[in-house]
Amino acid sequence: MEFYHGTTLSSARGIIENGFRPRGGATWFTTNWNYAKNRAEQKARRKHGKPVVLKTDLEIEALRTHLGNGNVHAHGNIIAVRERLSVQLLQSNFFELLACPAALSQWVNHQLGLYSHNGVSQNHWGIVRLAHWMDNRMRSGTGKHIDRQEFLAKGKQWLPAFFDKIPFSPEGLPIQHLQKDTIAVRVLYTDPSEEPIQPSKVDTRYLKAMADISNENPKRRMRGLQFLEKTGTEELFDWCALHLEDESIDVVCNALRIMCRCDEGYMAPILPHAESKNRRIRAGALAALAKHASDDVERWFERGLKDPAVCVRMAVANFCRRLIELRIKTFSTLRDTILTQSLNGLRKSGIKLEKS
């Protein structure tokens, strides 16, 4: 089945080089591209980077067999994997991603049908120099102007033994610019011969939460989410999203309530539940949307406050303060814009303004 992982450009380069390496948390995959994109954009805002979506095929049962049942949590369209996953680049048609030795060496070897043991190494001086040149161009803001012919010429200059054999004309090189595209990778699971990652210190409440989340008892799963909230993990919203497809209505409602208390979140996993026939689920979903909607917030407040069920109206009404704050912020921004435009207009008219 096709899954997506939202991340940043710098993290994507690290994933290509070292694989997915969760440290005290999990690696998240979803079949919902919008969810992965939302997650990538949030990470990019936090790290001042560029959002990237990685695409891969995953078989849940194969993952569980290979990594152990306790390391793979799956509900609905979301998978959380608590073990290292190696990856192989399948489609590196992006200058931004190729500007790293690991990805560039993979791309060259793929074009020539070679493997890492008989192809070019990521440590080859020509690979390192070409990747460094591309990265400098990207950082200087001229990356959009890297010509295919120029890229091929540099490759032949620094890697003649390999680039001379690539059976592509400059026009045929599968290199484009990263816009709204998705990068395809293949998950290779964990190599048993590799040295295990040294585990970092983990909150005992987090370990207890992981045990509870996998339990067959719905009350234990609810308690697991509550333990996670106490740990203050950045992945709390994603663990809640994982439980939105739970068979227990109580677990789903508990997950939605905790989502409402998260500082950051995304709309994509919540949207389907806003249409639920169950008023408790609908109340939690509309309240979460009122809290986390990135735009058109008024529409979700209006839907919630006009819902026929009292519990839905009450749940959404609890977030009316946020709507007021947003309107005040919008009014202040509009006021500042009008004042600035008015002052600029007066200056252009030749009217001198006294400083006050």
Structure explained in plain terms:
This protein is an alpha+beta fold. The chain folds into 2 domains: 2-189, ADP-ribosylation fold; 204-323, Alpha Horseshoe (Leucine-rich Repeat Variant), CATH 1.25.10.10. It contains 16 helices and 7 strands. The protein has helices spanning 9-18, 33-47, 60-67, 95-98, 101-112, 125-139, 148-158, 160-163, 204-213, 218-231, 236-242, 249-261, 279-292, 297-305, 310-317, 320-348, and strands spanning 2-8, 27-30, 51-57, 72-75, 78-81, 86-89, 183-189. Strand 4 (72-75) and strand 5 (78-81) form a beta hairpin. Helix 9 packs antiparallel against helix 10. It is flat, with a radius of gyration of 25 Å. The protein starts with a strand and ends in an 8-residue tail after the last helix.
Notable characteristics:
alpha+beta, 2 domains, four-stranded mixed β-sheet, three-stranded antiparallel β-sheet, 10% strand
